[in-house]
Amino acid sequence: MRRYARTLVAFALATSVVAGTTGWVSGDAQQALTGPPPGSAQWRADRVLGAELPDPERATPADVAVFFAGLSSAERQLLLVRHPSVVGNLDGVPLELRYRANALALAAEDDPRYRSLAAPGRQILAFDPRGRGQVAEVFGDLRAARRVSVVVPGSDNDAGTFDREVAAHGAPPGMARTLHTAAGPGTAVVAWVGYTTPVGVGIDAATGGLAEAGAGRLTRFTEGLTADGLPEPAVFCHSYGSVVCGIAARRLPATDLVVLGSPGMRADDAAGLRTKARVWAAKDPTDWIDNVPNVRFAGLGHGTDPTDPAFGARRVPANEARGHAGYFAPGTDSLRAFAAIARGATTPEGAGTPTDIRALADAPVLEGVVR
């Protein structure tokens, strides 16, 4: 009887899994944005080059990369001008074309929510205005970077809130910017809001539906980076973003998976993620996510706490971080450790204690070596 009662309590608490940065508020159910980029129907019908263009829904990022590699500069420019929304969001397209295409799409966009994204000098790698909007922005020279990182945020993030005025390190561009600054030369960081996130607390935050849809989009995005000749990234996954990363892990081309403030990754342990990437986990002592029960019952909840030693992730220190959105705050032990991982520094096999990761922050970078 006691076990049954505990299960009922866990079930009730699981419905309050919070995976965003805005705190304990009610949430509304969201419809995941899936499928190919906007404008795909016109793209499919276009025969301007005398043949069919790669299907945005069926062509792999590798297929797309091969197609664009075979085009002349004039042909690339023609497709960019005719179909900026497809070129700017199609994974596998050279990043330089995507920047220019998204600049065109944003210049033509009249929604005031996206006005700041059109500011000169911004490197917008993806922009989809449909629904709440999705966006990805690059910090650093992505083409020249020896090491690449992708930041996957949690709830209450979309293109319309991307530039909201919160703590400089708390919103996705702030996380990416501070990580890039700390990681230093030779690195680039992408703030990726490329999936439909939950809004506040509600059934979406407590279940994996939006994460399942997001995992496919994240996998395709990272495959597009590697198809474009870029290094496999380290992926930093905050809050509900760690649920996305956990589901994507087995297919995700990545050197490292770093989860912070995680409600769980929908796996019992790191081995259950079935990833070749190193798995790291951080949680600061003041993060309210610690009050969320790490259970999975009837589809609710996200499972084991990745910072639990039994999970088997390498532990990242976060004693100097404060709150759920403080992991990227300048001067914290967590940001120093994240920067070391972003630089590709390696540590002896089996390491993962706070002492080990502090040593990692000062360790030399061994190019091409990942343990």
Description of the structure:
Helix 4 (about 75-80) packs parallel to helix 6 (about 95-105) and helix 9 (about 210-225) crosses helix 10 (about 240-250). This protein is α/β, with parallel strands linked by helices and about 375 residues long. The longest helix has 19 residues, at about 210-225. The N and C termini lie far apart (about 45 Å). The radius of gyration is 20 Å and the shape is globular. Residues about 1-25, about 350-355 and about 360-370 have low confidence and may be disordered. It has helices spanning about 1-15, 40-45, 60-70, 75-80, 85, 95-105, 170-185, 205, 210-225, 240-250, 335-345, 355-360, and strands at about 125-130, 135-140, 145-150, 185-195, 235-240, 255-260, 280, 315. The protein is built from twelve helices and eight strands.
